[in-house]
Amino acid sequence: MAVLQGFEEVSLAAPVAKVTMTVTESAVRFNKATAEVLGFPAYVKVLVNPKTKQIALEPCTGREANAVKFSKPEGRQKASVSVRVPALIVAILKFFKLAAAPEGEISYQLVPGTVHEDEKVVVFDASDAKAGTMKRRGRKKAAEE
């Protein structure tokens, strides 16, 4: 039809959610959208590229070498995924400089990710990181008397 020339059909597929990784000195946290685009894998491999300062997540089985426990099954993963494996934190922190945080706060780097759906991989580029601070969560330490 000549009337519809130049028009494009609107895709009804839900847009890919924004995936992020938050790096602190004690944990690396991935938002729920990251788990969702990867298919809520129970385990992932974390790969780093020291030359490009990039971090990648790739779903894997729990039997593979260097598999990291990651997500609960779909519907049961209610919040972000925190990874607290010391060797992993050290490897990722090499790409970031965390500023000193005021008393009662934590310094962090927030990194947006790029989804590669064809390969079921998410890549985070350290050069895109935004620094910030947030209040500590969890129980308060008892005040010294």
Tally the beta strands.
9
**What's the domain count?**
1
Estimate percent helicity: under 10%
Low-pLDDT segments, ≥5 res: 139-145
Q: Give the biggest beta sheet.
A: 9 strands, antiparallel
The run of helices and strands is EEHEEEEHEEE
Task: Name the overall outline.
Answer: globular
Straight-line distance between termini: 82 Å
Strand content: 25-35%
Average of the residue pLDDT scores: 88
Which structural class is indicated by helix and strand composition? mainly beta
Count the DSSP helices: 2
Q: Could you characterize the architecture of this molecule?
A:
Residues 139-145 have low confidence and may be disordered. A hairpin with a 4-residue loop joins strand 3 and strand 4. Strands 1, 2, 3, 4, 5, 6, 7, 8 and 9 form a 9-stranded antiparallel sheet that branches. This protein has 145 residues and is mainly beta. It has one domain (31-133). Helices cover 10% and strands 34% of the residues.
Question: What's this, in brief?
Answer:
By secondary structure, the protein is mainly β.
List keywords for this structure.
disordered C terminus; globular; nine-stranded antiparallel β-sheet; 9 strands; 2 helices; single chain; mainly beta; 145 residues
